[in-house]
Amino acid sequence: MPPDLDMSFRWIPTNVLGLETPEGSFVRAYTESFELAFEGQSMEWGYPGFAAASPPGTDERIRLVASDSQTSRVVNTLFLRPLRREDSDDRSRLIVCRSELLSIEQRSDGGGVTWRNIGNRWAYPITIEFVRTGERLPPADQHGPQTTPFTSMFGSWQVSFFDRLGMGPENRADHIACNALPPNPDLPRVGVETGPEPWPVLPPSPGWPANGL
Protein backbone atom coordinates (compact mmCIF):
# COMPACT_ATOMS: atom_id res chain seq x y z
CA MET A 1 0.00 0.00 0.00
CA PRO A 2 1.35 3.51 -0.73
CA PRO A 3 3.29 4.80 2.30
CA ASP A 4 1.01 7.80 2.92
CA LEU A 5 -2.21 5.78 2.60
CA ASP A 6 -4.27 3.89 5.16
CA MET A 7 -7.22 2.38 3.31
CA SER A 8 -9.80 -0.39 3.62
CA PHE A 9 -12.65 -1.64 1.43
CA ARG A 10 -16.14 -2.53 2.59
CA TRP A 11 -18.44 -4.27 0.08
CA ILE A 12 -22.19 -4.07 0.64
CA PRO A 13 -23.93 -7.36 -0.29
CA THR A 14 -26.62 -7.14 -3.00
CA ASN A 15 -28.20 -9.73 -5.31
CA VAL A 16 -26.16 -8.31 -8.23
CA LEU A 17 -22.88 -9.99 -7.26
CA GLY A 18 -22.05 -12.92 -5.00
CA LEU A 19 -19.10 -11.49 -3.10
CA GLU A 20 -17.55 -14.87 -2.26
CA THR A 21 -18.01 -16.49 -5.68
CA PRO A 22 -15.08 -16.60 -8.15
CA GLU A 23 -16.71 -13.65 -9.91
CA GLY A 24 -16.96 -11.76 -6.63
CA SER A 25 -13.29 -12.36 -5.86
CA PHE A 26 -12.34 -11.10 -9.31
CA VAL A 27 -14.46 -7.93 -9.21
CA ARG A 28 -13.45 -7.10 -5.65
CA ALA A 29 -9.75 -7.65 -6.28
CA TYR A 30 -9.65 -5.67 -9.51
CA THR A 31 -11.63 -2.72 -8.17
CA GLU A 32 -9.53 -2.55 -5.02
CA SER A 33 -6.30 -2.93 -7.00
CA PHE A 34 -7.20 -0.07 -9.30
CA GLU A 35 -7.94 2.21 -6.34
CA LEU A 36 -4.61 1.36 -4.72
CA ALA A 37 -2.71 1.71 -8.00
CA PHE A 38 -4.31 5.11 -8.54
CA GLU A 39 -3.33 6.30 -5.06
CA GLY A 40 0.22 5.01 -5.49
CA GLN A 41 0.32 6.13 -9.16
CA SER A 42 1.86 2.77 -10.03
CA MET A 43 0.60 -0.63 -11.16
CA GLU A 44 2.85 -2.15 -8.51
CA TRP A 45 0.41 -1.14 -5.77
CA GLY A 46 -2.27 -3.46 -7.18
CA TYR A 47 -2.71 -7.01 -5.94
CA PRO A 48 -0.73 -9.96 -7.36
CA GLY A 49 -1.81 -10.51 -10.97
CA PHE A 50 -3.37 -7.04 -11.36
CA ALA A 51 -1.20 -5.98 -14.30
CA ALA A 52 -1.79 -9.23 -16.19
CA ALA A 53 -5.58 -8.92 -15.75
CA SER A 54 -5.64 -5.30 -16.95
CA PRO A 55 -6.37 -3.95 -20.44
CA PRO A 56 -3.65 -2.11 -22.39
CA GLY A 57 -3.10 1.47 -21.29
CA THR A 58 -4.06 0.95 -17.64
CA ASP A 59 -0.67 2.18 -16.44
CA GLU A 60 -1.27 5.50 -18.19
CA ARG A 61 -4.88 5.74 -16.99
CA ILE A 62 -4.02 5.45 -13.30
CA ARG A 63 -1.68 8.45 -13.72
CA LEU A 64 -4.01 10.75 -15.66
CA VAL A 65 -4.81 12.63 -12.44
CA ALA A 66 -2.50 12.96 -9.43
CA SER A 67 -3.80 11.29 -6.27
CA ASP A 68 -4.10 12.99 -2.88
CA SER A 69 -1.63 10.55 -1.34
CA GLN A 70 1.13 11.87 -3.60
CA THR A 71 1.31 15.05 -1.54
CA SER A 72 -0.54 14.31 1.74
CA ARG A 73 -1.31 11.53 4.19
CA VAL A 74 -4.65 9.93 3.34
CA VAL A 75 -6.94 7.80 5.53
CA ASN A 76 -9.87 6.25 3.69
CA THR A 77 -12.63 3.70 4.03
CA LEU A 78 -14.15 2.95 0.64
CA PHE A 79 -17.65 1.46 0.42
CA LEU A 80 -18.69 -0.43 -2.71
CA ARG A 81 -22.25 -1.52 -3.51
CA PRO A 82 -23.02 -3.47 -6.73
CA LEU A 83 -25.94 -1.75 -8.50
CA ARG A 84 -26.68 -3.59 -11.73
CA ARG A 85 -25.14 -5.83 -14.38
CA GLU A 86 -25.33 -6.80 -18.04
CA ASP A 87 -24.28 -10.30 -19.15
CA SER A 88 -23.64 -11.74 -22.62
CA ASP A 89 -21.92 -15.05 -23.29
CA ASP A 90 -18.56 -14.94 -21.52
CA ARG A 91 -18.66 -11.19 -20.78
CA SER A 92 -20.15 -9.21 -17.92
CA ARG A 93 -20.43 -5.50 -17.23
CA LEU A 94 -21.11 -4.37 -13.66
CA ILE A 95 -21.94 -0.97 -12.23
CA VAL A 96 -20.80 -0.49 -8.62
CA CYS A 97 -21.76 2.54 -6.53
CA ARG A 98 -18.92 4.14 -4.56
CA SER A 99 -19.08 5.92 -1.20
CA GLU A 100 -16.26 6.84 1.16
CA LEU A 101 -14.96 8.23 4.42
CA LEU A 102 -11.96 10.22 3.22
CA SER A 103 -9.53 12.10 5.46
CA ILE A 104 -6.69 14.18 4.00
CA GLU A 105 -3.94 15.70 6.15
CA GLN A 106 -3.56 19.47 5.85
CA ARG A 107 -0.31 21.05 7.10
CA SER A 108 0.01 24.76 7.81
CA ASP A 109 3.15 26.81 7.21
CA GLY A 110 3.71 26.84 10.95
CA GLY A 111 3.80 23.05 11.12
CA GLY A 112 0.33 22.54 12.51
CA VAL A 113 -1.81 19.65 11.32
CA THR A 114 -5.55 19.47 10.71
CA TRP A 115 -7.54 16.84 8.86
CA ARG A 116 -10.08 17.52 6.13
CA ASN A 117 -12.68 14.81 6.67
CA ILE A 118 -15.09 14.10 3.81
CA GLY A 119 -18.14 11.86 3.87
CA ASN A 120 -19.26 11.07 0.32
CA ARG A 121 -22.64 9.41 -0.23
CA TRP A 122 -23.28 6.87 -3.02
CA ALA A 123 -22.23 9.44 -5.58
CA TYR A 124 -19.97 7.82 -8.17
CA PRO A 125 -20.60 4.77 -10.36
CA ILE A 126 -17.68 2.47 -11.11
CA THR A 127 -17.89 0.43 -14.33
CA ILE A 128 -16.04 -2.86 -14.74
CA GLU A 129 -16.33 -5.06 -17.81
CA PHE A 130 -14.54 -8.40 -17.90
CA VAL A 131 -14.17 -11.58 -19.94
CA ARG A 132 -14.16 -15.10 -18.51
CA THR A 133 -11.24 -16.33 -20.55
CA GLY A 134 -8.90 -19.31 -20.18
CA GLU A 135 -9.32 -22.25 -17.85
CA ARG A 136 -8.29 -20.86 -14.46
CA LEU A 137 -11.15 -19.61 -12.30
CA PRO A 138 -10.55 -16.93 -9.68
CA PRO A 139 -10.70 -18.49 -6.19
CA ALA A 140 -13.99 -18.58 -4.28
CA ASP A 141 -14.80 -18.18 -0.56
CA GLN A 142 -12.37 -15.33 0.02
CA HIS A 143 -12.99 -13.54 3.30
CA GLY A 144 -11.09 -12.72 6.45
CA PRO A 145 -9.39 -9.99 8.48
CA GLN A 146 -6.75 -8.97 5.93
CA THR A 147 -7.14 -5.73 3.95
CA THR A 148 -5.33 -7.21 0.93
CA PRO A 149 -4.87 -10.75 -0.46
CA PHE A 150 -1.53 -12.56 -0.56
CA THR A 151 -2.06 -14.33 -3.91
CA SER A 152 -3.75 -13.63 -7.25
CA MET A 153 -7.54 -13.42 -7.22
CA PHE A 154 -7.85 -13.14 -11.01
CA GLY A 155 -7.39 -16.63 -12.43
CA SER A 156 -7.06 -16.27 -16.21
CA TRP A 157 -9.94 -13.78 -16.54
CA GLN A 158 -9.35 -10.38 -18.12
CA VAL A 159 -10.78 -6.89 -17.61
CA SER A 160 -11.65 -5.22 -20.92
CA PHE A 161 -12.83 -1.87 -19.50
CA PHE A 162 -12.69 -0.08 -16.15
CA ASP A 163 -13.89 3.40 -15.18
CA ARG A 164 -13.12 4.42 -11.60
CA LEU A 165 -15.35 7.53 -11.38
CA GLY A 166 -17.98 7.51 -14.13
CA MET A 167 -19.08 11.14 -14.44
CA GLY A 168 -19.68 11.52 -18.19
CA PRO A 169 -23.01 11.79 -20.02
CA GLU A 170 -22.97 8.03 -20.63
CA ASN A 171 -22.94 7.49 -16.83
CA ARG A 172 -25.68 9.96 -15.93
CA ALA A 173 -28.42 7.36 -15.31
CA ASP A 174 -26.12 5.31 -13.08
CA HIS A 175 -24.98 8.43 -11.23
CA ILE A 176 -28.62 9.27 -10.50
CA ALA A 177 -29.35 5.66 -9.47
CA CYS A 178 -26.38 5.59 -7.08
CA ASN A 179 -27.43 8.88 -5.50
CA ALA A 180 -30.97 7.54 -5.06
CA LEU A 181 -29.80 4.65 -2.86
CA PRO A 182 -30.63 4.76 0.86
CA PRO A 183 -28.00 6.61 2.95
CA ASN A 184 -24.85 4.73 3.84
CA PRO A 185 -25.30 4.01 7.58
CA ASP A 186 -21.53 3.87 8.15
CA LEU A 187 -21.04 7.55 7.27
CA PRO A 188 -21.00 9.67 10.45
CA ARG A 189 -22.23 12.53 8.30
CA VAL A 190 -22.22 13.60 4.68
CA GLY A 191 -20.13 16.60 3.71
CA VAL A 192 -16.82 18.15 4.75
CA GLU A 193 -15.50 19.08 8.19
CA THR A 194 -12.07 19.67 9.70
CA GLY A 195 -10.67 18.23 12.90
CA PRO A 196 -7.48 17.31 14.77
CA GLU A 197 -7.73 13.62 13.79
CA PRO A 198 -8.77 11.64 10.71
CA TRP A 199 -11.94 9.60 10.76
CA PRO A 200 -10.92 6.04 11.73
CA VAL A 201 -10.55 3.38 9.08
CA LEU A 202 -13.24 0.70 9.38
CA PRO A 203 -12.28 -3.00 9.06
CA PRO A 204 -12.52 -4.55 5.57
CA SER A 205 -15.60 -6.55 4.61
CA PRO A 206 -15.65 -9.34 3.56
CA GLY A 207 -11.87 -8.88 3.61
CA TRP A 208 -9.28 -11.47 2.60
CA PRO A 209 -7.91 -14.62 4.28
CA ALA A 210 -5.17 -14.16 6.87
CA ASN A 211 -2.93 -16.82 5.33
CA GLY A 212 -3.72 -16.73 1.62
CA LEU A 213 -5.72 -19.48 -0.08
Protein model, in words:
With 213 residues, the chain is of the alpha+beta class. The chain contains 4 helices and 6 strands. Strands 1, 2, 3, 4, 5 and 6 form a 6-stranded mixed sheet that branches. It is globular.
The coarse overall form would be: globular
Q: Find the structural class using helix and strand composition.
A: alpha+beta
Order of helices and strands: EHHHEEEEHE
Could you report the average pLDDT, rounded to the nearest whole number? Answer: 92
Q: Tally of extended strands?
A: 6
Q: Cα-atom Rg, whole angstroms?
A: 17 Å
**N- to C-terminal separation?**
20 Å
> What percentage of amino acids are in beta strands?
25-35%
Stretches with pLDDT under 50, minimum 5 residues: none
Describe the largest sheet. Answer: 6 strands, mixed
Tally of helical runs: 4
Helix content: 10-25%
